[in-house]
Every structure is written in structure tokens, then in C-alpha cells.
Design a protein that fits this description.
Rossmann fold, elongated, disordered N terminus, single chain, alpha/beta
């Protein structure tokens, strides 16, 4: 009895400590978020801009103490450089699948996103696309592909309709770089022009590595176009407008997505004046939340948003919100929540069509005036 009386309080205390210990030592659940984009090469600035947007979202989630199924979580970003190369894109996609990430935010180029998303679909791993815009991405009936950015059908299609109905161009020409992105934009622009009763007088092709466009532009000049739509990224778009000026080709320059950033103006110089471009989404400074994002981004990374960081931010939060709603980080559990998600992001309202494309995606026309991009008009898509 003496031993029982002596050790009972100790036993009770030890038992109490053991009961509390699991709560006190409970570690955060690590949730791996995959990311893939070009982090080296000509498109690296876009890839890093996107990556910073995702980093900012995950940091904000940490600061807010996000929990999933009532448990604290820590989001770990697993980044891969796809080099804007379709072959490498598939390789890094497999690496992310093997790493056991819960979702992938990526890629940047349509040419890498399309084959990589084939692999994600087979693996049952959701991918949220923040930048690639070719309509093929969401047209294959895949249940794991979601786009938080307007497709080319929405963006370049809007540009084509605008060229005919508002600009009143009569003789429209097109040049594209034959990438999945550039050609996809050009194809959708042409469809919209024809659907609006416009006339495409010529279509020329280049590559995303070219620096000399004089042959194509000389051919176009002989057709006397009053508007030329360019489906290409910088620096090709800047090179085209510079050589248009050198050849005395006075047609209105209209770029698709990926043209409207400060690099275009820097590369093109004074001849950029008057150029137009259609970009995905609404102007960042058109809403208080967008303006605040731009300010916080500059403070955090020491540089301005280039183009796609807000879409990377919204893509990451789309995944987080779906996981929260499902109380799970497992794709099979949270995928249905992705399909029904609805919230206001930095870039606009995030909600998906049945095929995973962005519902009511918007596009904005900009024009260079006094060396600065100035908003012309924002149009909501389908």
C-alpha cells in the first residue's frame, strides 16, 4: 500500500504528460506544391515571375495559418525548370509525379503544357495552368486540367472581333512563330476575323528563335495590309515592329498575349509608339486588390510584376482553397472541389467551365502612348 500511495501521484502526472505530449509536439503536415516553368533560357523572366507569384501565395497561406481538416499545414514548393522544351517538360512532369506533389502549378508555354498535362492526367494529378493558353489544353476532356487564365479562343478571339468591328481594319495580315502558343493565338484570331466578316489577306510564319523577319514583312508589304496581328513573344514581336518601321510598313501592329510588358517597349524603342496588344485578364491596377498585390510584390521581390505572377498566385490559392473545402490534400478528394470552386482572385473571378477552362475569362487591349502601356478596353469572354 505504501508503494501504491507513494507512486500513484507520479503515475498520474506521467500519464497526464503522455496525454498532452502528442498535442504539444504535433508537427505541421507538409504539403508539396509542384511548379514547372522555364527558369533558364529566353523565357526565364516569365517563369521566375510566375514562380514568385506562387511563392507569394504560399507565404500568405503560411502567414494566415491555413489549416486543412483542422490540422496545421506547411506548403513546400517543389520547382522544376522545363526550359520551355516539350521533351524536358515531360521529364520534369514525371519528376513532380514521382516526388509526390499534391498539385502542379504550371507550365508557362503551351508547347510544354500540352504534353506534360497528358502525363498528369494519366497520373491522376491536377495541374492548374496559370499561363499557357492554347485551347487544346482544355479541349481533350481531361478531368485534371484547370486554367486560371483566358484561353486563346477568348483572348485572341476577342482581338480578332475588335479588329473588324472597332478598329474597322479592312486588310488584315497575320504572322506567327509556329509555336503551340503563337500559332494557337493566330488561329483563333483568324477564326474571329472571318466570323466577324473580316478579310485575312495573307499569313506569314517565322520561328521563336528568328531575328530577321524582312522576307515575311516584304511579302506582307506588297499586299498593303492596314493591320498586322503578331502571335509571338518578345523579343520576336519587338523585332517585327522594328523591321516594319525599317521597311516603311505602316500597318497597325497588334500583338497577342505576352507582348504587353516593359521589355517590348525597351526592345522596340520609339517605334513601339502606337502598338497595340491584347493581354489575358484585367489590368492589375484596375482594382484595389490588384493594386495592393502589385505593391506587395514589389516590396517582397524588389521588382515589378512582369506579366503572369498574379495568375501564379491565383493558381496556388485555387489549389489551397479546394483542399480546404475537401479537408484533404489527396487529388481524388479535392478534385471535385476544384470543379465547383468559385472565388474572387487577384486576376478576377475564378470559376471553371466543364472542360476546366476559365469561365468568363477577360481580355484587355493596351496601346503604347508616350512610351507607356495604356489601357484601352477590357472585354469579358465566355
Amino acid at each position: 500500500m505504501r508503494f501504491a500511495k507513494t507512486f500513484t501521484p507520479i503515475a498520474v502526472a506521467v500519464g497526464a504528460l503522455l496525454a498532452v505530449a502528442p498535442l504539444a509536439s504535433r508537427a505541421e503536415t507538409v504539403v508539396k506544391i509542384g511548379f514547372a516553368a522555364p527558369l533558364t533560357g529566353p523565357n526565364a523572366s516569365y517563369g521566375k515571375d510566375l514562380q514568385n507569384g506562387v511563392k507569394m501565395a504560399l507565404d500568405d497561406a503560411k502567414a494566415q495559418g491555413v489549416k486543412i481538416n483542422g490540422e496545421p499545414v506547411s506548403f513546400k514548393l517543389i520547382s522544376e525548370d522545363d526550359q520551355a522544351d516539350p521533351r524536358v517538360g515531360v521529364q520534369v512532369a514525371q519528376k513532380l509525379v514521382d516526388e509526390g506533389v499534391s498539385v502542379v502549378v504550371g507550365h508557362f508555354n503551351s508547347g510544354t503544357t500540352i504534353p506534360a498535362s497528358d502525363l498528369y492526367e494519366k497520373a491522376g494529378l491536377p495541374v492548374i495552368d496559370p499561363a499557357a493558353t492554347n485551347p487544346v489544353i482544355s479541349s481533350r476532356g481531361y478531368k485534371n486540367v484547370f486554367m486560371v487564365i483566358s484561353s486563346d479562343a477568348q483572348n485572341a478571339g476577342t482581338a480578332g472581333t475588335y479588329a473588324v468591328t472597332t478598329t474597322k481594319a479592312k486588310r488584315i495580315a497575320v504572322i506567327d512563330d509556329r509555336t503551340a502558343f503563337g500559332q494557337g493565338e493566330a488561329d483563333e484570331f483568324v477564326k474571329a476575323v472571318k466570323a466577324s466578316g473580316g478579310d485575312i489577306i495573307d499569313r506569314e510564319y517565322t520561328t521563336n528563335q528568328a531575328t530577321d523577319f524582312k522576307t515575311q514583312l516584304t511579302n506582307l508589304k506588297s499586299k498593303n495590309p492596314d493591320l498586322i496581328f503578331v502571335g509571338a513573344l518578345n523579343p520576336q514581336a519587338a523585332g517585327i515592329i522594328k523591321q516594319m518601321n525599317q521597311l516603311g510598313l505602316k500597318a497597325q501592329f497588334v500583338g497577342g498575349g505576352g507582348v504587353k510588358d516593359i521589355d517590348f517597349i525597351k526592345l522596340a524603342g520609339s517605334v513601339a509608339e502606337g502598338a497595340m496588344a491584347w493581354e489575358y485578364g484585367r489590368p492589375l491596377d484596375s482594382t484595389p486588390v490588384g493594386a495592393k498585390f502589385a505593391e506587395r510584390f514589389k516590396q517582397k521581390f524588389g521588382e515589378d510584376v512582369l506579366s503572369y505572377a498574379p495568375f501564379g498566385y491565383d493558381a496556388a490559392w485555387t489549389a489551397i482553397k479546394a483542399m480546404q473545402a475537401a479537408n484533404s490534400t489527396k487529388p481524388d478528394d479535392y478534385r471535385p472541389k476544384l470543379q465547383s470552386i468559385s472565388f474572387d482572385g487577384i486576376t478576377g473571378h475564378i470559376e471553371f467551365n466543364a472542360n476546366g477552362s476559365l469561365k468568363h475569362g477577360s481580355s484587355t487591349a493596351y496601346q503604347v502612348k508616350n512610351g507607356q502601356w495604356v489601357t484601352v478596353k477590357t472585354v469579358s469572354g465566355l
